[in-house]
Amino acid sequence: MTVSEISVAPPAPPQIRRFRLSWQMLLLGLLAMLAMMSIARVVTGANDITSGGTIGAAVGLAVPIGLAALGGLWSERAGVVNIGLEGMMILGTWCGAWGALAFGTPWAGVIAGALGGALGGLLHALVTVTFGVDHIISGVAINILGLGVTQYLSKLVFTGMKGGGETQSPRIQAITDVSVPGIGVPLRDLENTHVFLLSDLAGVLRGVTQEVSLFTIVAVLLVPLSFYVLWRTAFGLRLRSCGERPVAAESLGVNVYFYKYVAVVISGALAGLGGAFLSIVASGIYREGQTGGRGFIGLAAMIFGNWRPGGLAGGALLFGYTDALQLRQGGVSVHALLLVVAMLLAAFAVYQLVQQHRNRAALISGAFAILVFLVFAMTDTVAEQFTSFTPHLTTLLVLSLASQRLRMPAADGLPYRKGQAK
After folding, report:
1. 133 domain residue, yes or no
2. By the 8 A CB rule, do 144 and 84 touch?
């Protein structure tokens, strides 16, 4: 063999380092995010972006979104797309109010809300799993059915009650709020000093430790519980196998129909809990239309979280925070958030360039960072019409930026009939 016949191997492409999230990196990222928000607070004077009131409101607004997202996670991990989360939340709002009024305790309303949502989940499972109806069609039908049923029940039950009517229930007894004793006043005093980073940290701690509803604590605990059940137990492994390879799961003796039913009923119960939170904790009364599309936003949070409990919790907090921000200082706070967005885009551009070697992605992110910063520099506030749209715009932006790294369960939404393995 001559030298000219020897094929020269092309140079190997640069290896892309895969990012692995550890608790140390998560803690560092949260600290960096808090530092960016502190910089924006100091520059703009919008002290409310890290205040205890804003953080507490963000957590409260994130709970129903997070519960709906958690419900979507259970269903889709078993291979059933659940577009009907909104309808199940609507059932949860009405049943939560009715249960609290009928039994005289708000915790009875919590249970009733979960049962109302579970009933919607059972109907979705019956239609999709047993009869093989398209998941999207079934979900849309449940959304319509949930709204119609609650309208009828309100006219039947709440009309004639003192404070009730065709579109609302009487006032509901509140669930107890709890606080970590001894730290509320010191944290508030430190927050009011407006010291860089320290006062922001004090505001965050005060928001998550003072006057927190017991229902909120239960909802937060459901996130690690769902992770443990789905990823650390044999039951969870079988359930997830139904969403990845149902034919292979059936060949190994897994009752695919049973696990799909269980997952979708639990999904409905979690969405119903989110609805009960709205009527019992968030407003203390049932009102028609109070879900406000949170079931769909929860679905977006689940997708943003890549069908993982921790990721969807972060997505729910993001949406809850933007919603809380526009409710408190409106245009001033959202304007300060533009500076935070510009810094995040710049950091993302550097990461894409240095760690991932993606020059095009880094260039696009850098260009958007400059554009957002110019908008921030040339304006003093944000129009009220835009601030009310902030949570929905955040949903669209987050999904568009996260779309490249998403991986849904392989058999999610695909039709499955028993006996396909034979």
Report:
1. yes
2. no
